[in-house]
Write a structure and sequence with these properties.
about 375 residues, about 50% helix, mainly alpha, 4-stranded mixed sheet, LYR motif-containing protein Cup1-like N-terminal domain-containing protein
């Protein structure tokens, strides 16, 4: 069991080896802040609980570095604010306006009624006004109210409060809040925050707004990362199809032969996480941390990270009239898994294969008429000989 400095050093080492830069920075800051802050006076039971929590974090980082999909997905979600304390901090500005009266303002209603941001079947707008769990006695003109008496005010408040808590607990917070004025994106943070304050979202700071935009742009870039084009001329074909001169001029030529014997094939690495039982469904076999695997993790994270788009009209006017024309839209990124436009850009090798296939197809189409003409001529000559 690792304790003290050994545990701290092992946590720092594992956090530095994470395959994503934002993920690594997040866990490094989290580990350093938790170890550097002065610990409060606590009992031996609380100290043992803190040590077990740190060791659990160490096993989680080891599983992510070893390639276990569920551990890597959890690390992605924690680093980008989809899970953990950052999730509740991002959702707080939408809950604060209706927290006292347990109502659903327009931004929160858009999140709750959208299937993109709701974890289960979203309610309808009419169910937000009248919860389906509210008894019929709440209506004084109903038959149940005339027979059993009207519902008390305390009971109705309790039902509405419970319905509000259940629905807001099933909402994913938006990864970013975009503002569109007159059909065009607002790129200035100050102008965007001013428009959000005008429509009722006053709890979102400029730092949080900018951080959400950066996270969304970074995830979209990582979900579609492709190899860069070589600076010299056209991209080379795959190495197995290159000429000797092309291989010699490549950026990474083959190493020169040496007199030392060839190195032995390294043994397969020993997994630090023991293979669990087959009943634990989340512990699949670990994956190799390839660029394709990381691209798919980023696209899967975008699938569960909604984006709130606030449409504001460009024409000026009274503030009340402008608030009535504001529209809130919840959508996924175009780079999310399964969405339109989620196909990444082709790499150099893939473009070479596409061009090569197009050339082969053109050659076959050009050779087919000639072959058909030769066949007809041969057929005509054979018929003449028979005559």
């Amino acid at each position: 069991m690792l304790l003290g400095k050994d545990l701290y050093r092992q946590l720092i080492r594992e956090a530095r080896h994470l395959p994503d830069s934002r993920m690594s920075d997040h866990y490094l800051e989290r580990i350093r802040s938790s170890f550097r802050q002065p610990p409060p006076p606590e009992s031996s039971v609380q100290a043992l609980r803190r040590v077990k929590h740190a060791q659990k974090l160490l096993r989680h980082l080891q599983a992510a570095n070893d390639g276990y999909p569920h551990a890597l997905t959890r690390a992605f979600e924690t680093a980008y604010g989809v899970r953990g304390p950052a999730k509740h901090a991002a959702l707080a500005p939408f809950l604060a306006p209706g927290l006292a009266s347990r109502t659903f303002p327009a931004p929160l209603a858009a999140l709750v009624t959208s299937p993109t941001s709701h974890l289960s079947r979203p309610p309808s707008p009419s169910q937000l006004r009248v919860p389906p769990t509210l008894p019929d006695r709440a209506d004084p003109s109903s038959d149940a109210a005339r027979l059993l008496g009207p519902l008390t005010r305390e009971r109705e408040r309790a039902v509405r409060r419970r319905w509000w808590s259940v629905q807001t607990g099933k909402v994913r917070p938006p990864l970013a809040v975009r503002v569109r004025r007159g059909g065009e994106d607002v790129t200035d943070v100050g102008d965007a925050r001013g428009l959000l304050e005008r429509v009722g979202l006053r709890g979102i700071s400029e730092e949080a707004l900018r951080a959400g935009w950066d996270k969304l742009d970074e995830l979209e870039r990582k979900a579609t990362t492709a190899a860069e084009v070589p600076p010299q001329g056209l991209p080379l074909p795959p190495r197995r199809l290159q000429t000797p001169s092309q291989r010699a001029a490549a950026a990474h030529p083959l190493p020169s032969p040496s007199s030392s014997p060839p190195p032995r094939k390294p043994a397969p690495p020993q997994l630090r996480i023991l293979p669990p039982s087959s009943h634990a469904t989340k512990w699949h076999l670990p994956k190799h941390l390839t660029p394709r695997f990381l691209r798919r993790r980023a696209a899967a994270l975008l699938e569960h990270a909604p984006v709130l788009v606030v449409h504001v009209p460009s024409a000026g006017g009274p503030e009340r009239a402008e608030e009535e024309r504001v529209r809130f839209e919840v959508r996924r990124s175009d780079r999310a898994r399964g969405e339109r436009g989620g196909v990444r850009e082709a790499t150099d090798e893939e473009r070479w294969w596409l061009e090569w296939g197009a050339q082969q197809q053109q050659q076959q189409q050009g050779a087919s008429p000639q072959a058909g003409g030769k066949g007809k001529a041969r057929g005509a000559g054979a018929s003449k000989k028979q005559r």
